[in-house]
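Run log // design_07
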């Protein structure tokens, strides 16, 4: 919790996350389905290497204040020879 100079309070976070991991029967040890949620701020979770296209990382999100968090989530399916990810 941050108290801003104008007296208002803001919730801030350095990208804490909650991860749920599940391995269906018959899948290998390194194969799984996982869901990762960033409930307060997903600013450190990047969709690419370019800062301009990252989620919440640039002025592309003009409707949010500087102290606001940008929540996000990621779904990952990981198999032996391939994986699929969605954000």
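design_07 sequence
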């Amino acid at each position: 919790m941050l108290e801003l100079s104008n007296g208002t309070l803001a919730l801030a976070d350095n990208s804490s996350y909650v991860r749920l991991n599940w391995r269906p029967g018959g899948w290998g040890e390194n194969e799984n389905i996982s869901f990762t949620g960033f409930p307060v701020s997903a600013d450190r979770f990047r969709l690419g290497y370019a800062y301009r296209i990252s989620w919440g990382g640039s002025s592309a999100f003009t409707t949010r204040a500087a102290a606001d968090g940008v929540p996000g989530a990621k779904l990952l399916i990981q198999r032996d020879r391939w994986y699929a990810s969605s954000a």
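The beta strands are 2-3, 9-10, 18-22, 32-38, 72-78, 83-86.
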